[in-house]
Amino acid sequence: MFPIKMEDNLDLMVKWNNKEFDISYIRSNDCVGALKELIFDVTGVRPERQKLLNLKYEGKMPKNELKLSDLNLQKGFKILMMGSLEKDIETASTQPTDLPEVVDDLDVEDVKLDNQEIHFAKVQRRIKEYQINILNEPREGKKLLVLDIDYTLFDHRSVAETGNELMRPYLHEFLTDAYHNYDIVIWSATNMKWIEEKMKLLGVASHSEYRIAFYLDIHAMISVHTPKYGLTQIKPLAVIWGKFPCYTPANTIMFDDIRRNFMMNPRNGLRIRPFRKAHTNRATDHELLKLMKYLRKLALYDDLTEFNHHKWEKYVKRRDENRKRKRDEYSNDTRERRDDDKNSSGDGRGAGTSSDFTECTTP
Questions:
Q1: Do β-strands 143-147 and 252-256 pair in parallel, antiparallel, or remain unpaired?
Q2: Is CATH 3.90.1150.10 what the domain over 8-83 is classified as, yes or no?
Q3: 19-23 and 12-16 beta bridge pairing
Q4: 269: which strand partners?
Q5: Residue ranges per domain, the chain?
Q6: Can you tell me the distance from the alpha carbon of 25 to that of 288, in angstroms, rounded to the nearest whole number?
Q7: Which of 62, 89, 97, 191 could form an SS bridge with 57, CB 3.0 to 4.6 Å?
Q8: d(Cα 93, Cα 72) in Å, to the nearest integer?
Q9: What is the pLDDT of residues 227-241, one digit of tens each?
């Protein structure tokens, strides 16, 4: 057996549970499965429970048999890992008794979770242990808007010289308008450092016309297993509701380009159309302008879970058509009255009515 040359070692590093571990004696011709075994040796997290977040091959998690050389890893590369120890999973299986109640709306859609008790226990643990840095205090009487970043507000894959080139069109107009009726929270499946950097890059963190209440990162998410999606990370809104009693299912809505992120709270989730290829689609993307109208109307109602947010575009279209019809009726009526009596005047410029929402409500 030939000795391993030091220059052949990748000398990787794994970051897990806020600690860093050196992975020595791993070479580029070793496979991903061998890497996981070495990670198991130093962390105790079994290979099948490891999720190596920033290892991607053709946009997907690499299979165990894939060679590390195919991933083009540089010497000293830092791997971000999520995964639970067996003893922690066993502990999580026991439901705590001293924590806030978690709202269960899993029966709203045909999404079945394996071991639901474990998932709800994870949510309770996030409520108890996850630390939130409040940037701006919740405002009395305001609803809550939770926003994803990547592909929702920002095209994070395209290349550009400035953040403005990758920012979704009308972002600041949208946030300024929403801020009148909603406290705004950013929740992204990345670490807090990158969230803060992206918000600075986009000018969101320092904007004078609106304020962000707080940021949530990947550590506020939980992993769940479903027959449909397998193991995946999701964003349970109950983490927010458990920490801030002023926010509830009735006054919360979340925008995300991935529907399964609000798997545990489907009545509160709206899947936004992903914003990709910013240079090509910038001129034709009006998603935030349309959603601005939707949020204005929702703000008039007490319970946002009564509405089917999947149909939001139909509502906006019907609302615009109703307004145009009323304007036309008003113009025609005004002309007729002027013909009869120059001193008469009319009204009728009204906004949309509750009837606009008839087809958008949940049966």
A1: parallel
A2: no
A3: antiparallel
A4: 254
A5: 8-83, 90-310
A6: 50
A7: 62
A8: 39
A9: 776 788 899 999 999
- What is the C-alpha to C-alpha distance for residues 99 and 356, in angstroms, rounded to an integer? 40
156-178 burial code (b ≥16 CB/10 A, e <16):
beeeeeebeebbbbbbeebbebb
Q: Give the Cα-Cα-Cα angle 306, 257, 282 (nearest 5 degrees).
A: 120
- Check if the beta carbon of residue 270 is closer than 8 Å to that of residue 312: yes
pLDDT over 50 at 348, yes or no: no
- Asked if residue 118 lies in contact with residue 93, where contact means CB atoms within 8 angstroms, the answer is yes
Reading the block at residue 94, the tokens are: 């026991």
* Number of C-beta neighbours around residue 5 at 10 A: 8
Q: How far is CA 54 from CA 25, 61, 79, 208, 319, in A?
A: 20, 9, 6, 34, 43
Which whole-number Å values give the CA distances from 277 to 160, 187, 235, in the listed order?
11, 22, 25
Strands (E), 26-86: 51-52, 78-82
CATH 3.40.50.1000 holds for 90-310 = yes
Distance from CA of residue 296 to its chain's centroid? 21
Helix axes 287-298, 312-340, angle to 10 degrees: 80
Nearest to 43, CA basis, from 19, 63, 76: 19
Helix boundaries (H) for 212-252: 238-243
- Strand 230-234, strand 19-23: pairing: unpaired
Position 16 scores a pLDDT of 86
**Tens digit of pLDDT for each residue in 278-324?**
989 999 999 999 999 999 999 999 999 999 998 888 877 776 666 66
Q: What is the pLDDT of residue 134?
A: 97
Structure tokens at 217: 């990162």
Q: Which of 279, 222, 225, 287 is nearest to 256 (CA)?
A: 287
